[in-house]
Design a protein that fits this description.
With 161 residues, the protein is mainly alpha-helical. It has two domains: 96 residues, Orthogonal Bundle (Hypothetical Protein Yqey, Chain: A, domain1); 49 residues. Helices cover 54% and strands 6% of the residues.
Amino acid sequence: METYGWNEAMGMRLLEKLKADLKIAMRAQDQEAKDGIRQVMSEFFKLTVPIVLESGKKSSRPKSAEEITNDDILGVIAGLVKSEKIMLEAKKAPSSRYLELLLSYLPRTASREEVAAWVRANIDLAQFKNTMQAMGPIMKHFGQAADGAVVREVLQELAGA
């Protein structure tokens, strides 16, 4: 599964990488990878842009390929990962090839230690009435690379310390 996956250092849009990986999976006759990538791409119709019709009614339309951003796709993949983990939990299975494929496209998440170190170096918790108010700037810095639950736990630990 080394051929599949994406990271920002590759210098290509995630959409292009998914299309390229789909071609690789088709040539290699890798049915599981092909199905997994097609599942991700089938979710793109849910990505919409709000519009106002001539009549003044508000509506939306699907985003075109040029309008779909890496963050849009990462959000789709994160949702699929969440639902796959729920399915695996119900089956009492540790993992699946589909889950591994999905995770290969997500950015590496920041560890608890990385989050704590960054918070200690950059956030003065005393400036907030409530330590949880620091979640905003922390999540803005880490973006998709940090798990909100981990950030909350780190803040609770630092507030108690």
